[in-house]
Amino acid sequence: MKSNFSNSKKELSQQNFSEETKNSDYYLQFIDSKMLNSFTPEQLETVRHLINLIIFRSSPKIVDLRFTVDLIFIRYFFVFLVGKDRRNQKRNYIPDPVSRWGNLITVVFIIISFNLLISSSILLGAYLVKSLIGINLFPKHFHQTVQEFILNGKK
Description:
Layout: H1 2-14, H2 24-28, H3 33-38, H4 41-54, E1 61-70, E2 75-83, H5 97-133, H6 142-154
Antiparallel strand pairs: 1-2
């Protein structure tokens, strides 16, 4: 029985682990060999199961937008992630009312900014397509039409 555990210990030390593939075997290699050899197969399997339960595994993200903004003296990084929340525990952090209002204002500002950006892009694209096709909404240039309207309106 003990030779089986010592063989598994040798196998553990010979495996190459990357950050993405760290599993219970990776963490078991840090246990003292005497202690590891003293585990029964049931105990070893239970320890492996518990380690696998607590290892953080990220969920796939629908949106994963990461970018940095370099200013003269400082660099800011922005991360925007959208995905399913797979955390088991609730947060103990309760923001104060000022932080909640600040977060709400920031979210509203970001939503309005994205809305304006998308709307203006659509309008600009539609205008460029209209110009390429050759459709003129006014017989003359727009500013000439406005000037004629103002002059005719005064008479």
